[in-house]
Automatic annotation (TrEMBL):
The keyword Ribonucleoprotein does not apply. InterPro entries: Amidase_dom (IPR023631), AS_sf (IPR036928). This is Amidase domain-containing protein. The keyword Signal applies. Residues 1-30 form the signal peptide. Residues 61-456 form the Amidase domain. It comes from Fagus sylvatica.
Length: 518
């Protein structure tokens, strides 16, 4: 049985913690470890250099992150569990570093990483999607991406919080909330963090982890990355394995990195992309992976010559002149760095047909029932074995799961489906038509390398077509809420998107750590 850890495993602080949070950032900055200045904003490159120069060990690094989690997590609630074997894994990495040839280890070797709590690990950690219904369940094996991370030498630091069931239990629940962990908070505003990979974004933004992994069905990497001023890569569907991930839809689910820099996100993508025979989609999609991997596209001059599309329907900021001016300045920067902006483009009936259509929800409801039942049946042991069981569990434990407040309307809608009938087939056909006549036509007709949009509003378009997107910190709105600039492209366009995103990041360098001041 999996060892049970709850949010109460972390020290509980008094209300004075909120006052002290403003000073924590500076305290972390003062940490000195044999010449390694601080975990604050430390990149994978910084850490590996400190390893190489014997200024830092993986054990000490894990200890520093665990201290940061102890300090901040009682308020931010970005982490559900820490791995009791993290220090053992760190010692193993330190030992390997001593005896393996220089250059033989991956960029992620010895690096602590947090996994969203819908990604299975065959260890002492739980995999629950934030619900008590799966607490203590035992998975048959590591998720495909976890197998690749372990092979790369990464340290599994723990499980990140999330919007419960990846935001597919109830429309009434706020982003970042789950029964086990409570309400996750944006470290910049202490407000909502975006969902559903909320904890993955909160944790790296607040320097509680070096890097993290999230998942996206529609907006679940892009949205929290945008709102927490971090980088998120939502890969082409099938580029990374979904095997062992608590599912919503095999047609739309994707696993990707959430980090503080584009480079760190790319190092993670290099580690987790590729064939997994437990997810057949990875076999065909592996043709998109460039020889030599993705890190070669970290080109600071990557914007030059790129054709970037601007659909002004996404640039409506109401009376918020701050975000409007900031975005227009970024468009100017893109031009100055050599990008060709194709402005005032349109996607026909975009909001009526994509954003107001019920086709996506109709398809996802039937798919969720099919795939969650298959996932639950494969578990070695579990308190629940079907969606029917989940609904019954929630009713029986209504107070524990806050059913009285948030309900389970999405579960109930999914349970009422009966396979893929006429309605579901019509919905899938409509989604394919919208993709073909909308985004694909826009990109091909205008010969675009990427579509550029502020925030994560473009996520439904990328989601229904299985397209990739990279979001990069871009600034703050008038309410001091962070936002990102998103670059979306056709399937397999990650190399171009990485060049564009890295070029923009290096030209602007917007990312800065939170101060925890409201």
């Amino acid at each position: 049985m999996a060892t049970k850890y709850s949010p109460l495993s972390f020290p509980v602080f008094s209300s004075l913690l909120l006052i002290l949070l403003a000073t924590i950032s500076s305290r972390a900055e003062a940490i000195k470890v044999h010449g390694f200045s601080s975990i604050k904003e430390a990149t994978v490159h910084d850490i590996q250099l400190a390893f190489k120069q014997n200024q830092l060990t993986s054990r000490k690094l894990v200890e520093l992150y665990l201290k940061q989690i102890t300090r901040l997590n009682p308020v931010l609630k970005g982490v559900l569990e820490v791995n009791p074997d993290a220090l053992y894994q760190a010692d193993k990495a330190d030992h390997e570093r001593k005896f393996k040839a220089p250059g033989s280890l991956s960029a992620l070797h010895g690096i602590p990483i947090l996994l969203k709590d819908n990604i299975a690990t065959k260890d002492k950690l739980n995999t629950t999607a934030g619900s008590y219904a799966l607490l203590g369940s035992v998975v048959p094996r590591d998720a495909g991406v976890v197998t690749k991370l372990r092979k790369a030498g990464a340290i599994i630091l723990g499980k990140a919080s999330l919007s419960e069931w990846s935001y597919w239990r109830s429309n009434a629940a706020p982003s970042g909330w789950n029964a086990r962990g409570g309400q996750g908070k944006n470290p910049y505003t202490l407000g909502y963090p975006g969902g559903s990979s909320s904890g993955s974004a909160i944790s790296v933004a607040a320097n509680m982890a070096a890097v993290s992994i999230g998942t996206e069905t529609d907006g679940s990497i892009l949205s929290p990355s945008s709102k927490n001023l971090v980088v998120g890569i939502k890969p082409t569907v099938g580029l990374t394995s979904r095997a062992g991930v608590i599912p919503i839809s095999q047609r739309q689910d994707s696993v990707g990195p959430i980090c503080r820099t584009v480079a760190d996100a790319v190092y993670v993508l290099d580690a987790i992309a590729g064939i997994d025979h437990n997810d057949n989609a990875t076999i065909q999609t592996s043709r998109y992976i460039p020889k030599g991997g993705y890190a070669q596209f970290l080109n600071s001059d990557g914007l030059r010559g790129k054709r970037l599309g601007i659909v002004r329907a996404f640039y409506n900021f109401g009376n918020d002149t701050i975000i409007s001016r900031t975005v227009e300045q970024h468009l100017k920067t893109l031009r100055q760095r050599g990008a060709i902006l194709v402005d005032n483009l349109e996607i026909a009936n975009i909001f009526r047909d994509v954003y107001s259509s019920s086709s996506e929800d109709t398809a996802l409801s039937a798919e969720f029932k099919k795939y969650i039942n298959a996932y639950l049946k494969e578990l070695v042991s579990s308190p629940v074995r079907s969606l029917t069981d989940l609904i019954a569990f929630n009713k029986k434990n209504s107070k524990l799961e806050r059913l009285d407040t948030y309900g389970q309307d999405l579960f109930i809608t999914a349970e009422a489906t009966n396979g893929f009938g006429n309605a579901e087939k019509a919905a899938l056909k409509n989604l394919a038509k919208l993709t073909r006549e909308g985004f694909v036509t826009l990109m091909t007709k205008n010969k675009l390398d990427a579509l550029v949009t502020p925030r994560s509003d473009v996520s439904p378009i990328l989601a229904i077509g299985g397209f990739p997107g990279v979001i990069v910190p871009a600034g703050f709105d008038s309410h001091k809420v962070p936002f990102g600039l998103c670059f979306g492209g056709l399937k397999g366009s990650e190399p171009k998107l990485i060049e564009i995103a890295y070029g923009f990041e290096q030209a602007t360098k917007i990312r800065k750590p939170p101060t925890f001041k409201t």
